């Protein structure tokens, strides 16, 4: 759905109350956000909250899966007692995609099947795994073209790309990562979709990645093992056009999904380990 | 002692104090920092200060389309904001198809923020998908000449390098572009994106080619992410070498008077 910019800056709930509070009322509608986190820190679960919140409001939502099998994602979401039926999925999982048609990257991507409801994808995903090994790798251009194709047929309010981690690892020299990811973010902005793009946390000494400074906000999740147990945290690194919480907050995975308490601080002994990553200059 | 030269107020009084009065006119300055540290706000305050003094100012928008910048900052800065001229240097969608050579460059003109169309331009409506560093340079040159621009902000130069130069030759393009800017005789701030762990240092082209370098910092202290600012270099002028705390408020970015409890500088 196209958003008129003459509107006030509408807020969109993430589906997680504590996170909405940290964002001063939610994400600003029609913009693209980076959700960056350590492996196992809860990024996909956060995405599920975000999409299910849209479903609850009668919105159209699209889940572009790249690094996970849709069947696994569906199982994960269902484990919280949620009905995945209304989430549309664009399966870009490298080993499953394009098992019907072969051709150049661009031809393949533009003729690939469009999104299906997430609950219907399980078996196809499994079947596809066996025969996809001789297919070309997914690339940023083919991803962009597939999303564009999808937008021709449907209008969406929310979108998740989960994730760009392997895309970046597999990106070839000839197609610039910077240009490709910039173009995808531009596409999402032009469509006026509220989007979460999942990435991994930058490593120390790594040059800044374009998706981080092109996005309208950055939410980061961390996972840490200390005292023999796992701790998770979340913070808002950037949110253009809005005030936001500058504190790091504890995050828990429960049987109902993620819980963020925007009034609590991290435990001091855990915080010390997190603080090492962000030393005083 | 350096001779007394006019100083250019940056629009951020606390920063002027650190710069011992402001920037020296006609030079290029780098503003380095991680995403979300307030670089765009600081650069905008620099342009606004010019508007308030009746100068013509130019923002070259490379990270975000002008209508989005206006959504972000318009309410923070009020009516003078709409008088800043903005040049849309953002790239449109990649077409992933062969385009005839004559289509490779594009001409756009700056317009006042107050006249910016409130929606992001749709790539489908635009004929030329590519925008080059040469085109950007040419467009800046025309604007500076036609509108007697005295203050320029390029936000960000990282986007310019990432999206408009071949990856192996970025230093060459950067050097040439900074040289181009310093020949314009306007006072120019270029923003530079970094991740949380800084990798630029005094030997980077950005540092070497700038008259001054202002750096934004972010660190975690008592569960809270703090922002700071320092002047890492200012050729031909004394300057404060400590790191000062910074706060982003609903009316802009402020440098806090009290020095952070950190030993900065030397």
Give a verbal description of the structure.
The complex is a heterodimer of chains A (281) and B (266). Chain A has 281 residues and is of the alpha/beta class. Chain A has a single domain, classed as Rossmann fold (3-Layer(aba) Sandwich). Chain A has ten helices and twelve strands. In chain A, the strands form two sheets. Chain A has a ten-stranded mixed β-sheet, with helices on both faces. A two-stranded antiparallel ribbon of chain A has the order 1-2. In chain A, helix 3 packs antiparallel against helix 5, helix 4 runs parallel beside helix 6 and helix 6 packs parallel to helix 8 (177-191). The longest helix of chain A is centred in the middle third of the chain and has 15 residues, at 177-191. Mean pLDDT of chain A is 83; it is low at 1-7, 96-113 and 123-136. Chain B has a single domain, classed as Rossmann fold. Chain B has helices at residues 13-18, 39-52, 66-77, 133-147, 157-164, 170-182, 205-209, and strands at 28-33, 56-61, 85-88, 111-112, 149-155, 187-193, 212-221, 224-234, 244-249, 252-259. Chain B is globular. The model of chain B has no long low-confidence stretch (mean pLDDT 89). The chains are: A alpha/beta (281), B alpha/beta (266). At the A-B interface, helix 6, helix 8, helix 9, strand 10 and helix 10 of A face helix 3, helix 5, strand 7 and strand 8 of B.
């Amino acid at each position: 759905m196209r958003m008129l910019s003459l509107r006030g800056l509408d807020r969109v709930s993430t589906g997680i109350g504590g996170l909405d509070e940290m964002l001063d009322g939610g994400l600003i509608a029609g913009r693209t956000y980076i959700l960056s986190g350590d492996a196992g820190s809860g990024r996909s679960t956060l995405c599920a909250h975000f999409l299910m919140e849209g479903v609850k409001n009668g919105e159209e939502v699209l889940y572009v899966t790249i690094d996970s099998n849709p069947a696994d994602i569906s199982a994960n979401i269902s484990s919280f007692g949620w009905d995945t039926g209304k989430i549309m999925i664009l399966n870009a999982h490298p080993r499953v995609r394009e098992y019907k048609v072969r051709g150049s990257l661009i031809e393949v991507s533009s003729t690939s099947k469009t999104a299906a409801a997430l609950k219907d994808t399980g078996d196809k995903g499994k079947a596809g795994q066996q025969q996809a090994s001789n297919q070309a790798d997914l690339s940023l251009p083919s991803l962009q073209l597939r999303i564009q194709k999808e937008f021709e047929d449907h209008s969406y309010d929310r979108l998740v790309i989960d994730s760009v981690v392997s895309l970046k690892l597999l990106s070839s020299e000839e197609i610039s990562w910077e240009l490709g990811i910039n173009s995808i973010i531009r596409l999402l902005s032009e469509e006026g979709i509220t989007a979460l793009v999942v990435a991994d946390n930058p490593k120390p000494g790594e040059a800044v990645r374009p998706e981080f400074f092109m996005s309208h906000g950055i939410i980061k999740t961390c996972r840490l093992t200390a005292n023999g147990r796992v701790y998770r945290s979340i913070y808002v690194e950037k949110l253009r056009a809005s005030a936001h919480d500058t504190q790091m907050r504890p995050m828990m995975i429960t049987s109902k999904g993620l819980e963020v308490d925007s009034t609590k601080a991290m435990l001091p002994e855990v915080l010390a380990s997190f603080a090492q990553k962000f030393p005083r200059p | 002692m350096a001779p007394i030269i006019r100083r250019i107020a940056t629009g951020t009084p606390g920063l002027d104090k650190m710069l011992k009065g402001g920037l020296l006119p006609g030079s290029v300055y780098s503003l380095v920092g991680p995403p979300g540290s307030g670089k765009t706000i600081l650069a905008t305050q620099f342009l606004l200060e010019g508007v308030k003094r009746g100068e013509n100012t130019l923002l070259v928008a490379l990270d975000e389309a002008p209508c989005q910048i206006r959504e972000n900052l318009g309410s923070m800065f009020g009516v003078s904001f709409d008088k800043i001229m903005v040049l849309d240097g953002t790239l449109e969608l990649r077409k992933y198809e062969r385009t005839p050579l004559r289509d490779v460059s594009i001409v756009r003109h700056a317009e006042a923020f107050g006249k910016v169309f409130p929606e992001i331009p749709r790539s489908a409506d635009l004929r030329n998908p590519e925008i080059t560093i040469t085109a950007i340079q040419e467009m800046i040159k025309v604007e500076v000449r036609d509108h007697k621009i005295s203050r320029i902000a390029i936000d960000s130069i990282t986007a310019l390098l990432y999206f408009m130069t071949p990856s192996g030759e970025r230093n060459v393009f950067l050097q040439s572009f900074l040289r181009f800017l310093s020949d314009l005789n306007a006072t120019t701030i270029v923003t530079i994106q970094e991740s949380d762990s800084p990798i630029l240092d005094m030997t980077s082209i950005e540092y070497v080619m700038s008259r001054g370098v202002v750096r934004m910092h972010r660190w975690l202290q008592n569960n809270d992410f703090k922002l700071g600012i320092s002047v890492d270099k200012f050729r031909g002028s004394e300057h404060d070498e400590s790191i000062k705390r910074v706060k982003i408020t609903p009316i802009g970015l402020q440098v806090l008077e009290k020095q952070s409890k950190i030993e900065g500088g030397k």
